[in-house]
Amino acid sequence: MNPDKQSVGKRNTVAVIGAGPAGLSAASALAALDFEVHLFEKESREGGKLNQYHQLFPARESASEVMGELLISVDKENIIRHLGLGVNSIKPSDGGWAVHHGDGEPIRSDAVIVATGFDFFDARLKEEFGYGIYSRVITSVDLEKKLNEGRETLLHKGTDPAAIAFVHCVGSRDEQVGVSYCSRLCCITGIKQAIEMKELFPETKVYNFYIDMRAFGTGYEELYRKAQEQYGVRFIRGRVSEASEDAECRIRLKAEDTLMSRPLKVSVDWLVLLVGMRPGCSPVQTDQSFLGSDNPLTGNALPGMPGVYSAGCCSGPMSIPESVASGRSAAFQVIDHLNSKQ
Amino acid sequence: MKNRFGFEIQDNRQIDLDLADDRVNDEVSAIIRAWRSCLKCGNCAAVCPEGEGVYKLDLSAFLDLSAFQKLTGLDKCYLCGKCQLVCPRGIPTRFVIMQVINYMKEYGKAV
Amino acid sequence: MTKYWKDYQKEIAEDEFFYVRSCIRQNFFPGAENLFIDILRNKLGKAIFEDADHTTCTGIGYHSDIVPLETIMTVVARQFALMKERGYKNMIVSCVTSFGIYSEILDLWKHDPALKSKIEGYLKEATGRTFEEPGNMVHASDILYKFRQEIAAQARYRLVNHETGQPLKVVDHIGCHYAKTFPERGVGGAEFPQVLTGLIRAWGGETVDYPERRHCCGFGFRQYILQPSRGYSISHSRTKLESMKPYEPDLIVANCPGCSMFLDRWQYTLEETDGSVYGPANEKIPVLTHEELAGLVLGYDPWEIGLQTHQVPVEGLLEKMGIPYDPEKKYTDRSGRVIGHPEKIHNSICHESR
Hints:
Chain A is an alpha/beta fold. Chain A is built from 7 helices and 20 strands. Chain A folds into 2 domains: 3-117 and 280-341, FAD/NAD(P)-binding domain (3-Layer(bba) Sandwich); 123-277, 3-Layer(bba) Sandwich (FAD/NAD(P)-binding domain), CATH 3.50.50.
């Protein structure tokens, strides 16, 4: 390697906005090459959405263990963490960027990686499912939390649930809520959570209501088959039209079984809505949309902002390994960019 | 059956999963585990000379097992095995059909 | 800030209303509309006018494929023309199907101005009239919703069991054409409409949320009108009644006259068909329209507002609410003359509890 190019790290500062999996892996990669990294995180701790999960698909790794590994990777003296500090905007400054945050003078950096992540779809917008109205209607995110808290949180008056239903595509592929894209990861989440429910409650009937099963990733289709064959999860193709509460506070669903061409009704103890991924707020734009790229097939450079790169879900739905890879890729692109400027 | 006003009040054709009779499905699945991995892709129906589909044997859709046999055309099958050749999940569909026929007899509804 | 449909409030005018009647409401619930007018004029002090020249909106004909779309649009245009000629801008529609018709036509004209011009031409040719779209067009239940607190202030009775002090359990049923077609035209949107729950709660009752609450009553016009498919219509009412039964409702209130008629009449028919009864203590559930509910709460005499014409007898409800009534006067007119008794209210199948 050209020693001059390698030494680009020691003289440069990079700001990473967001300390989720993408931001952490970008910061770690840059720090390994001796950059000074300013890592901003608006929440009081690192990790982003990873903090909310129980186990990851498809191999059921513990989210907290993965979190631990990522945190170790950023435990370096050249990563300066700014926790609880959001970034308001970034402005061109002296060939680089001034990062304006809420606490004092802006920090000047040679390049910026935006890793601000995503928001979950607000399930209350799908009124017909009764989220926020009926207590036994929860989202997949709520379920991860309950899994972390323990099996008892899913009991009702001490008894095991007799039936649980999952609804796919809540807030994705749905013109009624203005979201036309597929959030990619909800189907595999539904498969994983269905298996988790069957493991906790083997006698419970578990139904997954889907439109299309998108089990595209490595190991995903195999997990789908395992859910059916080994665990007996019933996958029903058809939308749920409404959820209402019956006299015992169970949730009664109306759906269509399109493969049987008949309407269907079932009573469940929990209705889990697999919510989609929406673009989050980021300091580089005024509207809330996924960040684009100058050259989408080969890189993450933000259009019209030289030296600014996106990483992770702020540019579209991604899984944890995809976010981590995206972070490292952005780090490399920063290095390449700064090398070419010399 | 018409009431005394001259009309009949129809029953709901809705599948009530709460009342589904899973006995035959469970017993067949216990023997042929792969049966549960059916995707209802329709490949079996596409090749069936009788135009039926093994996927229609998803019994929990039917509450009344006696009506079931007429609805699925199980009596038309002559076990040619074309469905088994094409199933993408590798389900031994001839075996499934034979098991279902056995269990239907056991539950008193002869094929 | 994110807005949710169930919190949605629409604009409802304050005063100076042009009222258009409902075919089904005035035929099956003959006291209801006069009651509504009386409440608005004499209890709420509002100006409400009904034009003797106004007609049916022809919604029944349209939904039964007898009246073509252009004809109904011209009839509706004439209603608007009458309103304009009388100098009114705010319309109150008595029937929910009419309300749906007016909403649909206004929406069609909004998206297709050429169509509207065509109708202007037809109306001019047929009647010489010109029209203007109403400034505000709401259903009668919206008006009661808007003034529910004023009515509560004048209430003589509340939706409470006067012996036990417990609120009455009231099933509210909203006609499909109120908000399902255009959610922005319904208070609370399509899934959780609030127009009747608002009334019930303001007047002391408790609403019942049962699984088939959002289900259509089955009226459907072209289904119900033909005997071969009538059973299909009624099967929907049955689905609703079966679903609400475990909650032991004291009362059903519906804002659509067709729905009120359905839920009232078919309890009798269903019992004749297979002996089913859906109310608590093996009794049928009384059904009221929104103005009849307001009328009872305000202390109008039950027979003067026409409750004797209901298929399901209301006496049980009156007793629960502590409303006095004179059984002798049930089938007499104002001069005291007996107008005749119905041959049979109760079913041929006897119940021990009676």
